[in-house]
Amino acid sequence: MSTSAWALALSWPRPLLLADCDHAGGDLAPGLLAGRVSVDRGLLSWSAAARRGLPATAAATLFAEHAAQVPEHPQVSLIPGFTTATQGASFTSETWERLALALAASTTAMGRDAMVDAGRLVTDRGCWPVLRAADQVLLAVRPSVRSVHAAQDAVRRVRQELGDLANVAALVVGTGPYSAGEVVTALQLPLAGVLPYDPGTAAALSDGAVSSMKTLRRSALMRAASSLAGELADSAEASSMAEAVAG
Predict the structure, then answer these.
(1) CA angle 6, 235, 237 (to 5 degrees)
(2) Contacts for 157 with CB less than 8 Å, ≥ 6 apart
(3) Which residues does 85 contact at the CB level (< 8 Å), separation at least 6?
(4) Lateral strand order in the sheet of 16-20
(5) Which residue in 37, 61, 35, 34 sits closest to 50, CA to CA?
(6) pLDDT tens digit string along 15-50?
(7) What CA–CA distances, in Å, run from 178 to 148, 192, 197, 244?
(8) Strand-strand pairing, 68-69 and 76-79
(9) Strand pairing category for 113-120 and 68-69
(10) Less packed terminus of the chain by CB within 10 Å, N or C?
(11) Rounded to an integer, what distance in angstroms lies between the CA atom of residue 125 and that of residue 148?
(12) How far, rounded to the nearest angstrom, does the alpha carbon of residue 23 sit from its chain's CA centroid?
């Protein structure tokens, strides 16, 4: 969910590069940064510049030319994603591998940690090489039957693609008929954290609704995200982290 990705990114305690890697079409830029991001920069422009054979550190340095800085939060830069699923299909496994290596080198090259919004894990295509390289994968899920059912399929795909679930945890988002404990029991995953239902803040993050950064920081969602982001940053052993979304 783009809302969770933005909440964690804006709360990250260190400089951060946020990459929208939803192969079906990303919505991070059209959300919080609606109308403020040039359509000629992002994953596609980066992949055209970071040609095959370019060292990972040099490819990571190029992120600076293809990212958009969040005006109200200069510590965060966004690599906009694809605008259509057709664009996403243009990325081959080799392209995703190059991106994974570059993201892993982002701390050395740019002085920024890397976070990825992987989108919905509903097919065998997509940014699996990026997830394999991540220090931690968060599977965002709502505490509802429908969302947990979708997340169970995502867990199966993650296990198949990553080999195991050692770096995978559940991020329970919002309210529903089940507790966070019941959700992680159903998914057989550890609990990374819980983000509350906060429609006003979610509208600002995912749909660009007008709200000051001061107001956002005081919201229930951003307070919870700040605490969780600090824990994740402290536990990360290297520089790359990915969030995968289901449901």
Answers:
(1) 105
(2) 121, 122, 124
(3) 23, 24, 25
(4) 68-69, 76-79, 16-20, 113-120, 240-245, 137-141, 168-173, 191-195
(5) 61
(6) 999 999 998 888 888 777 776 676 678 999 999 999
(7) 10, 16, 14, 21
(8) antiparallel
(9) unpaired
(10) C
(11) 21
(12) 12
| CA distance linking residue 81 with residue 26, whole number of Å | 5
Q: Please, what are the averages of pLDDT over each run of 10 residues along the chain (247 residues)?
A: 90 94 86 71 92 91 91 89 88 93 91 92 84 93 95 94 94 94 97 94 78 79 95 70 50
Q: How far apart are CA 34 and CA 80, in angstroms?
A: 11
